[in-house]
Amino acid sequence: MAGLALQAAGYVWIAARGSLHTSWIELDGALLVAGMGISMALPTVPTTVLDAVAPEEMGKASGINYMAQRFGTVFALAIASAVFAANGHLGSPTAVTAGFRPALWICATFAILAALSGIAITRSRREPAAIPEAAELPIGA
């Protein structure tokens, strides 16, 4: 949850403070926070998914997780792009700023929703697999 919270904080920071007069140092700081957040959150997803299923279902779970991540990325980019296009364009710096701020608010909302859904997921209570004991071999004479 900390990673998604950092990602959301970085996006909120840029959406709230980003303008033509914002220094590149401030933007870099916000992007660094968002980047650290996503790099903390992304590697934990496959582990959480695979911990939640039985060993014989890990292949299916891994494939479904991969597909869901790709669909999520495609839909988030499409929605953020549509919000940008509805509010701005690439014709001038002012128009770019007018478009990217609402688009980043949408990205921040997605990150906050992801963090809240992560809180709602309970940790798997599955027992670890038993380690088979070594077979006792007869000692030859």
Explain this structure.
The chain is an all-alpha fold. It has one domain (2-120). The chain has helices spanning 2-17, 24-41, 44-51, 58-87, 93-120. Helix 1 packs antiparallel against helix 2 and helix 3 (44-51) crosses helix 4. The longest helix is centred in the middle third of the chain and has 30 residues, at 58-87. The model has no long low-confidence stretch (mean pLDDT 86).
User: Which ranges are low-confidence, i.e. pLDDT below 50, for 5 or more consecutive residues?
Assistant: none
Question: How many helices?
Answer: 5
Which sheet architecture does the biggest sheet show?
none
Count the beta strands: 0
**SSE-based structural type:** mainly alpha
Euclidean distance between termini CA atoms: 61 Å
Number of domains: 1
Radius of gyration: 22 Å
Which geometry do the CA atoms define? elongated
Strand content: under 5%
The portion of residues assigned to helices is over 70%
Quick check: average pLDDT?
Answer: 86
- Could you spell the SSE succession in H and E letters? HHHHH
